[in-house]
Amino acid sequence: MYAIIKIGGKQYKVQEGDYLNVDKLDASPKEKIEVKEVLVVNNGDLKIGTPYIEGAVVELEVVTHGKDKKVLIFKKRRRKDSKLKKGFRRQHTRVKVLSIKA
After folding, report:
1. Cα 89 from Cα 91, distance rounded (Å)
2. What's the distance, CA 23 to chain centroid?
3. Residue 101: what pLDDT?
4. Can you tell me the distance from the alpha carbon of 60 to that of 83, in angstroms, rounded to the nearest whole number?
5. Please, which contacts does 82-88 make with residues 24 or more away whose CB atoms are closer than 8 Å?
6. If DSSP codes are grouped into helix, strand and coil, which group holds residue 10?
7. How many helices (H) and strands (E) are present in the chain, helices listed first?
8. C-alpha to C-alpha distances, 2 to 23, 35, 46, nearest whole angstrom
9. Residues in CB range of 41: below 8 A, 6 or more apart
10. What is the C-alpha separation between 16 and 2, in angstroms, rounded?
């Protein structure tokens, strides 16, 4: 059984027991979150929402907050002796999928 959910403008395919990193959420560790924006549920027969499935809920538990690896941005303008090097680390929340209710 799997579901496709939408969190923070991005879509994720999840199964029970999965861990995934999503954009940072305002939730403390061990807090439970219910996601009602469920696009697809497959439990033997495929249900597709328009755009969401009514009554379908995916329950998540916040594990930790953290940062991803550094992403480097390097810009160079040829023959201008001009370069720019920047970097950033995206903050994320690690969540565990507890249950999928359709």
Report:
1. 6
2. 6
3. 94
4. 43
5. none
6. strand
7. 0, 10
8. 21, 14, 10
9. 1, 2, 3, 47, 53, 56, 100, 102
10. 8
- Report whether pLDDT(102) > 90: no
Number of domains in the chain: 1
| Per-residue pLDDT reduced to its tens digit, 21-76 | 999 999 999 999 999 999 999 999 999 999 999 999 999 999 999 999 999 999 99
pTM: 0.83
Contacts for 102 with CB less than 8 Å, ≥ 6 apart: 3, 38, 41, 43, 47, 53, 55, 56
User: What's phi and psi for 3, nearest 5 deg?
Assistant: -140, 155
